[in-house]
Amino acid sequence: MVMASEDEVSLLVIVVDVNPIWWGQQANREPQFTLSKCLDAVMVMGNSHLVMTRTNKLAIIASHCQESHFLYPCKLWKSGDGHGDDNASTSGDGKYELLSVANDFIAEEIKNLMSRTEVKGNQTDTLLAGSLAKALCYIHRVAKELEAGQEIKSRILVVKAAEDCALQYMNFMNVIFAAQKQSILIDACVLDSDSGLLQQACDITGGLYLKIPQKIALAQYLLWVFLPDSDQRSQLVLPPPVHVDYRAACFCHRNLIEIGYVCSVCLSIFCNFSPICTT
Amino acid sequence: MAALSEEVLLVVKRVRQRKQDGTLYLMAERIAWGPEGKDRFTVSHLYADIRCQKISPDGKAKIQLQLVLHTGESTNLHFSNESTALKDRDAAKDLLQQLLPKFKKRANKELEEKNRMLQEDPVLFQLYKDLVVCQVISAEEFWANRLSINNVDHSLSNNKQEVGISAAFLADIRPQTDGCNGLRYNLTSDIIESIFRTYPAVKQKYGENVPHNLTEKEFWTRFFQSHYFHRDRINTGLQDIFSECAKLDEKGLKSMVFQGVKNPMVDLLSLEDKSLEEGYGSNSTAPSTSNTNKTVKENSNSAIIKRFNHHSTMVLAALTLCMALCTIIMCFLSKMSCHFYVIEYEDLHRENGKKTVALNLKKSDRYSHGPVPLLPQQYTTSQDIVNSVNCIKHEIASYKPCLTQVMSSSTASSAIAALSPGGVLMQALAQQAINQMVPNDVQEEMKHLYTAAGELLRHFWSCFPVNTPFLEEKVVKMRSNLERFQMTKLRPFQEKVQRQYLSTNLTGHLEDMFQMAYNKFHAWQTRRMMRKT
After folding, report:
1. CB < 8 Å to B424, chain A
2. Is residue B47 a contact partner of residue B29, using CB atoms and an 8 Å limit?
3. Which of A62-66, A174-178, B101-105, B148-152 has the lowest mean pLDDT?
4. Mean per-residue pLDDT for A162-168?
5. Does B362 lie at the interface with A, CB-CB under 8 angstroms?
6. Which UniProt keywords apply (chain B) (predicted)?
7. Is there a single domain that holds both residue B324 and residue B182?
8. Residue of A nearest to B403 (CA)
9. What does DSSP say about strands B8-17 and B20-27: parallel, antiparallel, or unpaired?
10. Nearest-5° angle of CA B380, CA A20, CA A16?
11. Residues B222 and B85 placed together within one structural domain of the fold
12. Domain stop point among B73, B108, B143
């Protein structure tokens, strides 16, 4: 393991997909792995990251279908220790104060978030692109607030549950390229169905994509594969990268095509030649 | 001692070599030196072995001649006869200078070339070792293609590039003041060559006067002093060797103008309309009053213009390419603004912008979002949604993190098993490590095999289509070469690989290539047989 100096800050942002509809259905499908268990595993991962090095930083974003909300750190954090004292659940097990406070905050925030949920039929998709954008902004802000001489290495870990939302494609790609420009890795741990967008994200930014076979072992997978940072990953034997399907979809049939025709004006892709572009 | 049939061209006495007095003999084919009083030659070199000779500089006390051989050795000869040492040494040097070029080994050059090529390119060297040393193909075939390429390169490099003349070379001479009212001009051989090429009259004068009448230094001093060189060539009455040059130049300029100019871009023809005629006030058909009434200033102006034009035309004429555009000419042309199109360069135009098509979007969301591949969407009923949301709300409301019981040890160990090499998630990894499983020396040998096989196959395939009897022979020979290579090199390698228990098929591709070559040969042979019968 590389000894991190005082000057290197490693920031991990975990984006958890808390789509209530999917998780609600999941509770019926698989009662032994519910959102509570998932959040437990994520907390274990966050704690482990904070404990690895004193200068490590953590952020957790819940990606809901109505909003993206920071579970940790929350805005009330800076408002002083008064708040902390009031709710002081100084856990009697002698845990590192930072971890216990963090865990409490996370639990508090997720409860608030879920209680705020309103049922809306037309918003059933996880706002993943928005969450990633928020993560990038947070990383940018933290990078700006560093002391002189400190360097930051950041990565984003996405724990994905629900399916891809096709409408977010453009935003997603923008986020991916912005992350690539900032050298921010995007890792993905997918619980249920493969996500083409996240595969592309991991491929482009240099992160790891993993679809786990056993959801209840989520914590183990997170710790084994996603806890080491990019320098350490080169020394470890980790699952090989998946083959990414980069084919574009044609504008007329929305099939994935390998060879097509492109309009030189608007760059729309068609599978058959036609002299008039329909866009 | 020297063979009786050898012709002695020069004998020099009192020549010391390695602090021993002796005599130097220059024969028809070799140079030899024997110590005083002895009969034998202790030093003898064939002219063919001598690479070059060197002499000690003029001022030195010791008058020496050094012979450098091809092998790098050198022999020093010290001419110690007080009175005639210098003459002796020079005589020897001149004779050697005449004789050495005759004997320069031509064949050696090729060998040197080959050696150089082999040393520079390790891949080539390895190929040579694999193919020629093991007698798979002969050395001539090996060098057949390669040397020809190199000879072409050499011939190209022998054509020295023609150096152009800077139009400002005279101005660049830049005299420096000497401190006491004099000027120093620094002349390099480049400048001298430029002057000769631009002003052939000066070259002629140089040839006539140096070194008989004037030394070079004096010639150039006179050149710079003469008003030929200076701006106002008015006082041409001086007794000057260069006064003729001015007249020659004028004659040359007139003839050039008469000829016209081939390239319209350098449109001297248009100059003729206005300015040249002014300069030629005295010789043109203009009324003679114009000449005598001209003021001195006008005369000098016209003289300058004339000299500029002449200079420019001479510079251009000295070049084989007509690319230089004199700024003077440009000024005149732009003032006249005739033939405007001729002086325009298309690629220097401002970018007018390509013809653009306006973007009319009918379906703008298609443009901004792009199509989304049709994926099976899960359809959830609204009832499902309501149920799920309520369920999750209920669950999270009573959420308490229980981090000590995140998972059981059995699930953890099964996850670890899946992630270990050979596990469910790591299958793709096993296929990627072939270059880690094969040892390095085997890899190296494979590379050499591939290079050698590639070379042989190239020779083979280049014979097709078989048109000439030479190619027929070559194809048959190459076929046998390929077989021999396969026997001597490929099979042992395969066996070695098998002995090391490497299950990977490393030579499959090579075998395929050879088989294809054999098939082609067989097909060609059968066709030839059928044609003969």
Report:
1. 213
2. yes
3. B148-152
4. 82
5. yes
6. DNA damage, DNA repair, Membrane, Nucleus, Repeat, Transcription, Transcription regulation, Transmembrane, Transmembrane helix
7. yes
8. A40
9. antiparallel
10. 125
11. no
12. B108
Rg value, chain A, Cα: 20
Alpha-carbon gap, residue B141 to B224, rounded angstroms: 62
Task: Clarify whether residues B209 and B329 are in a common domain.
Answer: yes
Tell me, yes or no, if B414 comes closer than 8 A to chain A by beta carbon: yes
Query: Does residue B522 form part of some domain?
Result: yes
For an interface test with A, the pick among B360, B361, B382, B385 (most A C-beta atoms closer than 10 Å) comes out as B385
Give residue A14's pLDDT.
95
H helix count then E strand count, chain B: 23, 9
pLDDT at A20 over 50: yes
Q: What is the pLDDT of residue A202?
A: 92
Residue A272's pLDDT band, with cuts at 50, 70 and 90, is confident
Structure tokens at B438: 């094969």
- Consecutive H or E run containing B252: helix B243-259
Among A40, A164, A268, the residue with its CB nearest the CB of B406 is A40
A37 contacts on B by Cβ (under 8 Å): 406
In DSSP terms, B64 is beta-bridged to B78
Q: How far apart are CA B490 and CA B513, in angstroms?
A: 12
Ranges of residues in chain B with a pLDDT under 50 are 1-2, 152-159, 227, 232-239, 261-296, 320-328, 331, 337-339
- Per the domain annotation, does B68 fall within a domain? yes
Give the least confident one: A92-106, A231-245, B263-277.
B263-277
Residue A134's pLDDT band (boundaries 50, 70, 90)? very high
Contacts of A202 (CB under 8 A, 6+ apart): A186, A187, A188, A208, A209, A241
Residue A219 neighbours by CB distance under 10 Å = 23
Q: Helices marked H in chain A — which ranges?
A: 20-29, 35-52, 81-86, 97-115, 128-144, 169-181, 196-205, 218-221, 230-233
**B388 assigned to some structural domain:** no
Q: Which residues contact B161 (CB under 8 A, 6 or more apart)?
A: none
Which pLDDT score is estimated for A11? 93
B309 and B213 together in one domain: yes
The domain in which residue B55 lies consists of 8-108
The answer to which of A122-131, A162-171, B226-235, B355-364 has the lowest mean pLDDT is B226-235
B104: left (phi over 0), alpha (psi -120 to 50) or beta: beta
Q: Provide the ipTM.
A: 0.78
Which residue reads 């789509």 in tokens? A19
Q: Which residues of B touch A108 (CB under 8 A)?
A: none
Name the band, by pLDDT with cuts 50, 70 and 90, for residue A140: very high
User: Are B95 and B180 members of one domain?
Assistant: no
- pTM equals 0.50
Residue-range domains of chain A with CATH: 8-79+93-245 (3.40.50.410), 247-278 (no CATH)
**How many whole angstroms separate alpha carbon A61 and alpha carbon A226?**
17
Residue B182 lies in a domain: yes
Say if the Cβ atoms of B399 and A41 lie within 8 Å.
no
Tokens representing A11 are: 């920031």
Structurally, chain B folds into a number of domains equal to 3
**Chain A contact for B338 (CB, 8 A cutoff):** no
- One domain, residues B249 and B327: yes
Residue B141: predicted pLDDT: 67
Q: What percent of chain A has pLDDT over 70?
A: 91
Q: Are residues B179 and B309 in the same domain?
A: yes
What's B45's domain CATH number?
A: 2.30.29.30
Task: Answer yes or no: do B401 and A23 touch at CB < 8 A.
Answer: no
